[in-house]
């Protein structure tokens, strides 16, 4: 029994390591941070026991302590980005990316969000076989606010994560079509949620258009965004056919994760 009169949970593995992992997982869902009392209560750990752990994590920059609240620090995000960089999409997603590229003969990718740097990262990519195409490769990044895949990731993100991103995002005008007004971006995100896809024409690159759809896990949370990109003229000429193919691929990938 701990100092709060609660029975301590049974922990498999080294207790200190397990508590640190539980702590990081808890704070990952709390961008506003938590007080020592809130952490102690949530993890059923006495405050006196927890203090040395918290201090050590702050010293190593895995946590920051400001205004009485603990939040994830730069080292935690760096650690997470290293994991993400080596993460590969599930087989069903990879199969759908390849199938969509083969069917449409356009460039197709699958992106996940790196919230620390505000970028969509493509973990899967297949280039179009046509002479003129949008060049894709795994590892390429795109701004969340300006790219079709990024806009889908924003639209389906938890509200607190979306607001945290919009509060600090540096919204640069990349082309004459780039949306940088928060009101316009918010309105478009709502349109994406209603329609189930994002269509972007010349917003990130002036000569390129893109379509993106969410790939959803069985719990309804977004895993990532599937995106097809093509030269503007070719996208306009084949818009309805390409849109139907992208939507089907996204649904098939989502169904494969259930």
Automatic annotation (TrEMBL):
Residues 14-74 form the HTH iclR-type domain. This is DNA-binding IclR family transcriptional regulator. GO terms for biological process: negative regulation of DNA-templated transcription. Signal peptide: none annotated. Keywords: DNA-binding, Transcription, Transcription regulation. The keyword DNA-binding applies. The lineage of its organism: Bacteria, Pseudomonadati, Pseudomonadota, Alphaproteobacteria, Sphingomonadales. It comes from the Bacteria. The keyword Magnesium does not apply. Residues 75-258 form the IclR-ED domain. GO terms for molecular function: DNA binding; DNA-binding transcription factor activity. Gene3D superfamilies: 3.30.450.40, Winged helix-like DNA-binding domain superfamily/Winged helix DNA-binding domain.
């Amino acid at each position: 029994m701990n100092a709060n009169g609660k029975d301590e949970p049974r922990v498999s593995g080294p207790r200190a390591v397990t508590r640190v992992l539980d702590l990081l997982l808890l704070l990952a869902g709390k961008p506003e941070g938590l007080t020592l009392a809130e952490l102690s209560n949530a993890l059923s750990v006495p405050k006196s026991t927890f203090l040395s752990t918290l201090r050590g994590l702050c010293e190593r920059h895995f946590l920051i302590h400001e205004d009485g609240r603990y939040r994830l620090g730069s080292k935690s995000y760096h650690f997470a980005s290293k994991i993400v960089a080596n993460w590969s999409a599930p087989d069903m997603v990879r199969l759908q990316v390849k199938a969509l590229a083969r069917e449409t003969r356009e460039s197709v990718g699958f992106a996940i969000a790196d919230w620390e740097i505000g970028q969509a990262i493509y973990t899967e990519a297949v280039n179009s076989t046509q002479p003129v195409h949008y060049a894709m490769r795994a590892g390429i990044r795109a701004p969340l606010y300006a790219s079709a895949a990024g806009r889908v990731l924003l639209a389906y993100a938890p509200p607190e994560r979306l607001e945290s991103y919009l509060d600090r995002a540096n919204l640069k005008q990349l082309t004459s079509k780039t949306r940088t007004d928060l009101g316009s971006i918010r309105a478009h995100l709502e349109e994406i949620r209603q329609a189930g896809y994002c269509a972007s024409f010349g917003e990130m690159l002036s000569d390129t258009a893109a379509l993106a759809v969410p790939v959803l896990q069985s719990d309804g949370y977004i895993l990532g965004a599937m995106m097809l990109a093509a030269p503007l003229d070719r996208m306009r000429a084949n818009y309805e056919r390409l849109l139907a193919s992208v939507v089907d691929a996204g649904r098939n990938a989502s169904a494969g994760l259930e």
